[in-house]
Amino acid sequence: MDTRTLGATGPAVSALGLGLMGMSDFYGPADEKESVATIHAALEAGVTLLDTGDFYGMGHNEMLLRDALRGADRDRAVISVKFGALRGPDMGWNGFDARPAAVKNFVTYSLRRLGTDHIDIYRPSRLDPQVPIEDTVGALAELVQGGYIRHIGLSEVGAQTLRRAQAVHPISDLQIEYSLLSRGIEAEVLPTARELGIGITAYAVLSRGLLSGHWAPERELTAGDFRAGNPRFQEGNLERNLALVEALRGVAEAKGATVAQVAIAWVSQRGEDIVPLVGARTRTRLTEALGSAEVYLAEDDLAAIEAAVPPGAAAGLRYAAPQFAQLDSER
Question: What is the DSSP letter of 116?
């Protein structure tokens, strides 16, 4: 596994990271034993960047990662944690809290659940509109000074917020959605991140399964799968998006690769400062994702991909309208 450095000041990580969210939440039931086995397989393959959130399964995801790392060399893993989302016992959403006191409270619980004395990258999952980003980053800087976290990251913020945050403390990376179906960061966010020396950890590189090449139009979503409310999976939009996937399949087959491998390779080859996160929940899907490292996209391949999935071709917003409106990165 090749490595990349997150920005000018961040850690060296594997060129492909593993996102753990689906092992605990949002995509319906998951097999816990298979989840742990998948994390082990990722580590054995050289994947070091492991991304979680304290609100994924109300702490379950962090404890799952703790169990998977038990007995392993802690320093092999670069743990990235998102915080700040407020949820209720009905699994609903109650806003976001990034006040300095809340930041320190959240990290204390995460350290205990993870069973570690430090978190490698700690980031608010969204911008708190009630709290200046300078205050949040200032609190995070104190945690760096105390040795509780090693690096500060951000998630789904816009260019101006990046600038304000970077003025307080170096930011290692911005975690944000980036895929063939979600290219909004190319206009302003990505150029700004590069100007400031901030890396990108790209999530939803397979657009929540749409670009996996395995999605069947007649598939019924299980209880607890948030895609049931996602605009891109709604009737009409889904069919149009899957038509794009079929066009991409032709490019993949010509390369002797799968649709997912081409989609991941495309993100990876957008720059050495970008690390794709794959949300594999099983060893089978992980193995397929790892195969993307063997896929080189030449200029004619990239042109064919652009023709198959042009910028802005996706049908539907990447989040439901209420969540989309809250994204600082989309303002």
Answer: -
Entry pTM: 0.96
CATH of the domain at 187: 3.20.20.100
Q: What is the pLDDT along the chain (331 residues), one digit of tens a residue?
A: 899 999 999 999 999 999 999 999 989 889 999 999 999 999 999 999 999 999 999 999 999 999 999 988 888 899 999 999 999 998 888 999 999 999 999 999 999 999 999 999 999 999 999 999 999 999 999 999 999 999 999 999 999 999 999 999 999 999 999 999 999 999 999 999 999 999 999 999 999 999 999 998 888 888 789 899 999 999 999 999 999 999 999 999 999 999 999 999 999 999 999 999 999 999 999 999 999 999 999 999 999 999 999 999 999 999 999 999 999 999 9
Read off the amino acid at residue 312: G
Name the residue range of residue 57's domain. Answer: 3-211+267-295
Catalytic residue from among 27, 56, 122, 319: 56
> Catalytic: 296?
no
